[in-house]
């Protein structure tokens, strides 16, 4: 009963007061808008507030998870691009050999063979000779 009387008396009244010195309260021109709700308890209000907090928390978690997923995808794409660039660079180096790699290929074609010659009795004199194999490019077989 008290709540009904308070709601009726305060409904449509000013929240603040106009001061005599010309100054006004911040809420001087705002009005109360009250209505008595039969059967409404504070527990209902607490439940609603708790529910809204849970919803807001869930939305925030979903937003953070979505941002993390987007970030992980970006990092994965950056790693893939870096790997792909390294593969392409390796292919280019392999297809276009530089002068230093040509020199290495020439050096690899020289092989040392140990030839046994000048047999004197049971003693052997080993002679090392460098041989460069010759490749015939005009093989038609």
- What separation lies between the terminal Cα atoms? 115 Å
Largest sheet: 2 strands, antiparallel
Radius of gyration: 47 Å
> Strand content of the residues, in percent?
5-15%
**Contiguous uncertain segments of 5+ residues:** none
General shape: elongated
What's the average pLDDT? 77
SSE pattern, N- to C-terminal: HHHEE
State the helix count: 3
Helix content: 40-55%
Give the total of beta strands: 2
Structural class: alpha+beta
Q: What is the assembly state of the chains in this entry? A: single chain
Task: Describe the strand arrangement of the main beta sheet, using strand numbers.
Answer: 1-2
Written account of the structure:
By secondary structure, the chain is α+β, with helices and mostly antiparallel strands. The chain has helices spanning 2-10, 42-95, 99-109; strands at 111-120, 123-131. Strands 1-2 form a two-stranded antiparallel ribbon. β1 (111-120) and β2 (123-131) form a beta hairpin. The mean pLDDT is 77.
Describe the secondary-structure layout.
Layout: H1 2-10, H2 42-95, H3 99-109, E1 111-120, E2 123-131
Antiparallel strand pairs: 1-2
